[in-house]
Specification:
alpha+beta; five-stranded antiparallel beta sheet; 181 residues; two-stranded antiparallel ribbon
């Protein structure tokens, strides 16, 4: 086969969007919710399910990836000792993977499609797994893909020695053990 050095069908501009940078607020458009499954790196027989929520803007894109909470370990809240302003000790708790996943779903649904969120809440007693929750979120937000515009605030976290963008931690656990946004 002969090499063809013609440039008629070659773009000089990348079609890839960069990842939005940490610690910024960006005008973005909601691009949708997708679910997928992949094999583990350490144990390829172990399957992981994730939900991805994507936002696109002129400066780039951001995708929040949420692993499906499926085990009792996903419900565990880590604790640490703390003191109040009077010096009295008490236990503080960090939100579990389940708490974080449900808070992200609630936040996305309530902001992107408030009417759909109300309907989702009404039927949520019938959900038996996080897959049901993710599918319901996808269903109520699909009509808003490419239409809903907002400002997305990103913070940062270090992963594999690199600073990566992430959504702010917007779920906390109060002293009574209740999760709140």
């Amino acid at each position: 086969m002969a090499m063809n050095f013609g440039l008629k069908n070659t773009s000089g501009i990348s079609s890839n969007k960069p990842l939005l940078k940490p610690y910024g607020i960006y005008p973005v458009t909601f691009s949708g919710v997708e679910t997928s499954e992949f094999a583990g790196k350490k144990d390829p027989s172990k399957k992981f399910k994730v939900m991805r929520v994507r936002f696109d803007g002129k400066d780039g894109y951001y995708t929040e990836t949420v692993f499906f909470p499926e085990t009792e370990k996903d419900m565990e809240r880590m604790s640490f000792d703390n003191t109040d302003r009077d010096g009295k000790p008490y236990k503080s708790y960090m939100p579990s993977s389940y708490d974080k996943a449900m808070a992200i779903v609630a936040q996305i649904a309530a902001v992107v499609n408030p009417e759909g969120w109300k309907k989702m809440q009404e039927v949520s007693d019938k959900f038996t797994s996080f897959a049901d929750v993710a599918n319901a979120l996808k269903k109520i937000t699909d009509p808003m893909k490419g239409k809903f515009e907002t400002n997305l605030k990103l913070t940062g976290r270090v992963s594999n020695g690199q600073l990566q963008p992430t959504l702010p931690n917007f779920v906390r656990i109060n002293r009574d053990g209740e999760a709140y946004l």
